[in-house]
Design brief:
This protein is of the alpha/beta class. The protein has 12 helices and 21 strands.
Length: 466
């Protein structure tokens, strides 16, 4: 077999006969790596043998709602859209130590307790090491859970055809290799071909496959971007490996919403579900201090109450710094400009830091008013209205724009004991509250909102520091 050397882009899989500094396909710099390439030994007929059926007319296809496989981990089922779809391929990514292998083993045990056959392919750990990890998690296994330490894809396919499990877990795709390719495991071509073959197997046999993938230092999945296009669902674990809470987010889902998140707490017995994330995120909120406010954001169908903190201090250098953790930096710069132009706050020489507690990343525009209020609170050293939730999108002219699903947000705030809710005036129209003790305060401009939230009047001519 004739072998040649090629260079492959680690980001998109583009191949070139020579090394290039910049990828002409995805414009990534220094992403090319050298690989040995040989034509696959298997013929097209052998690959096509995975398929059982030929082309059929769309009108002749009988559509039926198949029952999803419930993992009995409600946070995971919510992110997946209600459970595991038969024949789907799910890619799980995240930083090392964040809990990818842990949740995979927990899913295996929950499924096998329901009588569902599971094959756990551990390419990075031996069978004994996997057993020790399962014992640490308090799981002893069952008659339906098979574990194998294997990295050869052809043998893995044979195991799947022999055992016929309903769910297969590949841990991880970076160590699996196809002997038909001469490149080493983890290379662009190996990851692409192995993922493609596993996807074909899942679609033809109805086996659901979980694939665990490593991430790069930039936080994206290692390997070509085509890997995300091949699979049906892409899940990311967010959160520092040294932090307690983990957030599971779907960035792609062909069988459900991509707006849902699952919240977990890492403990000695693995990942535990957080049933009320809002209460957890607000449990350590300080009282009677400036620069702290609560808002309600939507993650799919779930409302979450999060605390937004801000610290505004005089800059010691000639250039004022702007930093945001969990909030979009460009959006922060826009809101600071609105406060300076429309409200007259002298923030040009102030360092501004904004933090969303709990590791949540806020993308909901309903948090704009809360960010403006918390910056003004820290700048004026003024405590905000107690037991208040602030909602609203801020426009460039200082107007407060309406938001969606107001009633859902209010009900979540009322459950946790909040008494006041500052809302855009247009969102209060046709708002029906049933026997609610929540005081609804409509606002239409940023100045009006800050006067109520901070309990003082901010003059348009300027706001000197207290």
């Amino acid at each position: 077999m004739k072998t040649k050397t090629i260079f492959s882009c680690a980001s998109c899989g583009y191949q070139s006969p020579k090394w290039l500094g910049k990828c002409p396909d995805c414009n990534s710099w220094n992403s090319f790596s050298e690989e040995d390439y040989a034509a696959p030994a298997s013929s097209g007929k052998e690959r096509a043998s995975l398929y059982k059926d030929g082309p059929v007319l769309l009108k002749d296809v009988v559509a039926r709602d198949e029952d999803r496989l419930k993992t009995n981990i409600r946070e995971l089922d919510r992110v997946l859209g209600g459970g595991i779809v038969k024949g789907s391929v799910i890619l799980i990514g995240g930083d090392p130590g964040v809990g990818k292998s842990t949740i995979s083993l927990q899913v295996s045990n929950h499924l096998t307790k329901q009588g569902i056959g599971v094959l756990y392919v551990s390419g990075e750990e031996s069978v004994v090491q996997t057993k020790l990890r399962a014992k640490r998690l308090g799981e002893s296994g069952s008659d339906n859970l098979y574990i194998v330490n294997q990295t050869d894809l052809s043998l893995i396919v044979e195991y799947i055809k022999k055992l016929k499990p309903q769910v297969v877990i590949i841990d991880s795709i970076q160590v699996i290799f196809d002997s038909a390719l001469s490149s080493s495991a983890g290379s662009v071509s190996q990851v692409r071909e192995c993922a493609g073959l596993l996807t074909q197997l899942a679609k033809t046999t109805g086996t659901s496959i979980f694939i665990i993938g490593h991430v790069t230092k930039e936080g994206t999945l290692a390997g070509p971007r085509v890997l995300e296009h091949i699979v049906d669902t892409v899940l990311y674990f967010e959160g520092d490996r040294f932090a307690i809470y983990r957030i599971l987010r779907a960035v792609k889902n062909r069988f459900g919403s991509t707006n849902e998140i699952g919240v977990f707490e890492m403990g000695p017995e693995g990942l535990q579900e957080v049933k009320n994330p809002s209460e957890i995120f607000l449990s350590e909120r300080p009282n009677n201090v400036s620069g702290s406010i609560v808002t309600s954001i939507l993650e799919g169908s779930r409302p979450l109450l999060v605390e937004i903190q801000s610290l505004v201090s005089r800059s010691s250098f000639g250039y004022a710094r702007r930093r945001a953790q969990g909030f979009d930096f460009n959006r922060l710069s826009l809101l600071v400009a609105v406060l300076e132009k429309r409200m007259g706050l002298a923030l040009e020489a102030e360092d501004i830091f904004v933090n969303v507690t709990g590791g949540i990343k806020v993308e909901d525009p309903a948090a704009d008013l809360a960010v403006c209020a918390v910056i003004a609170s820290s700048f004026r050293e003024q405590v905000v209205m107690p037991q208040a939730v602030v909602l609203g999108e801020v426009g460039l002219s200082g107007e407060i724009r309406s938001i969606s699903q107001v009633l859902t947000r209010i009900n979540e705030a009322e459950k946790l004991g909040f008494k006041h809710c500052i809302l855009p005036g247009n969102s209060c129209k046709n708002l029906k509250l049933n026997k609610s003790d929540m005081e609804i305060i409509p606002v239409s401009t940023l100045k009006e909102a800050l006067d109520i939230i901070l309990g003082l009047s901010i003059k348009q001519q300027g706001a000197p520091r207290l």
